[in-house]
Amino acid sequence: MTPESAATYLLAIFLFAITPGPGVFALIATGMNAGFRGCLSLAVGMTLSDVLYLLLATFGLATLAEHWGEVFGVIRVLGALYLFYLGWKLWTSSTQDEEMPATGANGGALAGVTQGFLISASNPKVILFYIAFLPTFVDLDRLGGASLTLLVALTVVGLMSGLCLVAAGAARTRRIFRSSRAQRRLNRGAGSLMIGAGALLIAKS
């Protein structure tokens, strides 16, 4: 991979990270409710899922994964139901002290990582992205250990940079709304985003 290809790949991964979809909507909702720190574990989970698909594509297993329709269907439904649950929790909460259980202080980092992983892993767009995208930058048949390490590093940096940018914007919105009434409206807006993310996940074919 040439320096130009590496830079182009990094930019493409960054843009892919901030493209609206179930993961971005869930991240915005989390940032609006739990702040920037509450988003970090969610972003890590999403990034781990993408790295897994990158490795699958690299070792020629992505096509097999793409055809595990029933397995991904079950994961997608479970992920969507969980997002519906989080959306309902946000709708029924009224103050900023009642944070979302998945990625707030009460939910723990592991819950956030799991949620992010499920959202990204159940999105067929992620699989197809790496299947169609990687061969334009590297020859997968001649990919060595050093090049693979570079690809993984670029993917992690690009994704985390984009996702953290989204999270920071959502967290800034949260800080604006300080009164109980405004916080209640913010929670309901975040809950609607969570429910919308779940609906998008269900609608994915």
TrEMBL record:
One of its GO terms (molecular function) is amino acid transmembrane transporter activity. It is a multi-pass membrane protein. The chain crosses the membrane at residues 6-28, 40-65, 71-88, 109-133, 145-166, 186-203. Pfam families: LysE. Keywords: Cell membrane, Membrane, Transmembrane, Transmembrane helix. Signal peptide: none annotated. InterPro entries: LeuE-type. GO terms for cellular component: plasma membrane. It is found in: Cell membrane. This is Threonine transporter. The lineage of its organism: Bacteria, Pseudomonadati, Pseudomonadota, Gammaproteobacteria, Oceanospirillales.
